[in-house]
Amino acid sequence: MTAAERLAAIETWAARWLGRFALGSDDEDALVQGFCDGLVDQGLPLLRMAAATEIVHPVLDARAHIWRRGKAVERREIPRDAEDNEEWLTSPFRHMKETRTPEIRRRLGHSYQQGEFPVLDGFVREGATDYLALKLKFGVGATLGAIPGVLMSFTTDRAGGFAEGEAELVRHLAVHFAHAYKSLASVHAGRTLMTTYLGADPGRRVVDGAIVRGRAEPVQAVLWYSDLAGFTTIADTAPHDHLLDLLNEYADCLVSTIAAHQGEVLKFMGDGILAMFPLGDDSPCARALDAAEAALRHLEHLTGRRRDGGLPHTDIHLALHVGEVLYGNIGSRERLDFTVVGPAVNEVARIEAMCRQLEQRVVTSSAFAAAAGEARSRLVSLGRYALRGVRRPEELFTIDPEAGVG
């Protein structure tokens, strides 16, 4: 086999392997691992390969995969506030991105002058002899989300660097890889968008095809409805940046606590949060109470820190209720919402409004108390009250101060 035939065979193998992989998997780590291991098996003397791209994510800016011969792929996720770290600022990838340079190649042999890029100096110490970095752009609208392209680098430690024709082969391989990488990145972007804006379970259902208007299933669930105490007054007086910071910090505290207790946040309504804990055999009422008590503890720390820093701070009012809801797609032909509806949703909102009147941080319904099982001992009655829009007065409860935080 001639050298040209060998290189053509490697490209054919790579194109076929990447195409089959992208059709059957969403595992980016396995994509990089299998591609690079396979190239070595095909005779391409790779020492290291890196691929990086911006991603669609609320707190992460980019994701990188780094392969080294004989080692497992390393995944790095870069937060949005990490653009000024030294490793990024002095990297070839950053230089290519900022200067719109499509390619950087550096021979790393004896004549290489160190100091241009510190990461390359490290490769020299590891025995690298040749480095080729490429920037492949994605077309506008060709990805799910604003992902401009992928940056890739290939490094060899063979004496003399990449052989004649191999550098051009690497350029072709990068195009094949970018197709597969973009395919997987778009899948992950879609899932991230769905779970970020709809929640984990609704997002999964929508991605799996639950998008037909009017299709909803009856579900028995614990409902959580909370809002921030005195938020209107804060909104009228606080600067916009302080207001957004307050909303984000309190929401982060509550949402993470609900999720840690297997609850599902369904909707943000201004400063309010609607969540549910589906009924089952695992004591959802107890989990909801655990979540409420944990949230109150976390909020005390958060409020204390904000108060000490001279920042706006507040507290929450929280209602817990049990009832049947319709869980699914509700809306118009053009605009749907995956949420819950039903009398129980209205009732939990009415119960939350009683927190102010009763001067309680947490109020639960009699239905919640009745379904709480052993957790019922953690509740104490507040008496019977008429709820707006509800025909009969209802007994309300709160967390017993001797048994919980409330």
Give short descriptive properties of this protein.
alpha+beta, 406 residues, 6-stranded antiparallel sheet
What would you call the shape? elongated
Query: What's the number of extended β-strand segments?
Result: 14
The ordered string of helix (H) and strand (E) elements is HHEEEHHEHEEHHEHHEEHEEHEHEE
User: From the structure provided, what is the oligomeric state, counting identical versus distinct chains?
Assistant: single chain
Rounded Rg: 28 Å
The overall average pLDDT, rounded, is 90
Strand order of the largest sheet: 3-2-1-6-5-4
- Through-space gap between termini: 78 Å
Low-confidence stretches: none
Give the helix/strand class: alpha+beta
Residue fraction in strands: 25-35%
Specify the helix fraction band: 40-55%
Please tell me about this protein's structure.
The structure is a single chain. The chain is α+β, with helices and mostly antiparallel strands and 406 residues long. Helix content is 42%, strand content 27%. The strands form 3 sheets. It has a 6-stranded antiparallel beta sheet, sandwiched between helices. Strands 7, 8, 9, 10, 11 and 12 form a 6-stranded mixed beta sheet that branches. Strand 2 (60-68) and strand 3 (74-79) form a beta hairpin. Helix 9 packs antiparallel against helix 10. It is elongated, with a radius of gyration of 28 Å. It starts with a helix and ends in a 7-residue tail after the last strand. The model has no long low-confidence stretch (mean pLDDT 90).
